[in-house]
Amino acid sequence: MATEQEPPPSGRVSRRKLLGLGAAGAAVLGAGAVAARPLMNEPPPGAVAPANEPPGVGAAASAANEPQGAHAAPYPFYGEHQAGIVTPAQDRLHFVAFDVTTGERAELVELLQEWTAAAARLTQGREAGSFGAVGGAPEAAPDDTGEALGLPASGLTLTVGFGTSLFDGRFGLSGKRPAAMSDLPKFPGEQLIPEISGGDLCVQACAHDPQVAVHAIRNLARIGFGKVSVRWSQLGFGRTSSTSRAQATPRNLMGFKDGTNNLKLEDADLLREQLWAGAGDGSPWMTGGSYLVTRKIRMTIETWDRTSLAEQEQIFGRDKGVGAPLGRKAEFDPLDFAAKGPDGEPYIRADAHVRLAHPTSHGNAHLLRRGYNFVDGSDGLGRLDAGLFFIAYQRDPRRQFVPVQMSLARKDPLNEYIKHVSSGLFACPPGVRDAGDYWGRTLFEG
């Protein structure tokens, strides 16, 4: 990201800048200190997408055909929907959940405005603030932490969500909690750790370069100092689903192709039906948004690795090599649950993962998955602390994620090798339309 030295805009001095300068820097305040809000009127060049065209479609869609390297072009920040949902899935993730520490609604709104301004810049390969990492007063803390200097945008997207706890009454939002955000039930077998679950706010940073993703989250956390604190975060590598037909299907840490039948950005009719919240859903402020469920799923890798290939394939219901449904030849061959083998038994048994999760088993419920592999070191007993950070977007978790996961939790033989240790439910509002808009405006001003 190239260093910028822009002339300071007129306007008030931000609290963050005052804290950074301190008494020794008071003399340079006359040169002007950068507040984040004026940057709302400074859109990055070429960032505006047509309001009816989701990010990842049109001009940005060409990136889906590019190698998943560090030189991907920027995705549009402005649009009807937030980027990072149907955008062709990037290879790296830094996901963070925040607790809001301020009790003032006005301060929370101001933070969302500052975050939006910074995100508009960061996603276009620019620094988080006008003075950047080295262009400001020597006595002041920089406007950017600097570890992404010289790096391109790398396909960075930033997606924000509001957790169920944000609607607890602190900010006058209890009457605006969507019905679709009913608390998730307790699923059989889950072993959730409260400290790495939930959160008032979340930010999903996806990019082709891990340093770019980490840099973005680090700078949003820095901007939020005194108003939010990090509750938990998760790094991910190796996307475990494709969100465009231009992408190859990736593999999870069990070695199987993952997300073959995922919703794709090309499925316009299904996206309207299954992904985007509608005006008639009961929460007008969420129109054009989507609901996000996260689950950290720990895999007992060592036990899985000692399981026979035949058993692994029976558990999933797919061939491990090409990803074809059992009894078929190619990955995208239709699933035929009635097909039987030479022994007269179904190729895909009744409790196979693909059968239990299939839309035909749940009233045509689809999910748009954007999960990632993770390895968080070892657990001290010589076992990898590894697995899948599951991310799924949908129109209504009550009708989509909940029935699918309940079926899997009760019947899936894969449960012998996995356990759910973290969970989150977030309402991701519609996209930022232009430079005068901000994340969550429809909630706070609607």
Automatic annotation (TrEMBL):
Transport recorded as keyword: no
Cofactor: heme b
Dyp-type peroxidase C-terminal domain: residues covered: 249-432
Domain Dyp-type peroxidase N-terminal: 82-237
Cofactor binding note of this UniProt entry: Binds 1 heme b (iron(II)-protoporphyrin IX) group non-covalently per subunit.
A UniProt-annotated Pfam family: Dyp_perox_N
Signal peptide: none
Keyword Iron: yes
Top-level taxon in the UniProt lineage: Bacteria
Keywords, comma-separated and alphabetical: Heme, Iron, Lyase, Metal-binding, Oxidoreductase, Peroxidase, Signal
Name of the protein described by the UniProt record: Deferrochelatase
Provenance organism: Nonomuraea antimicrobica
Phylogenetic classification of the source organism: Bacteria, Bacillati, Actinomycetota, Actinomycetes, Streptosporangiales
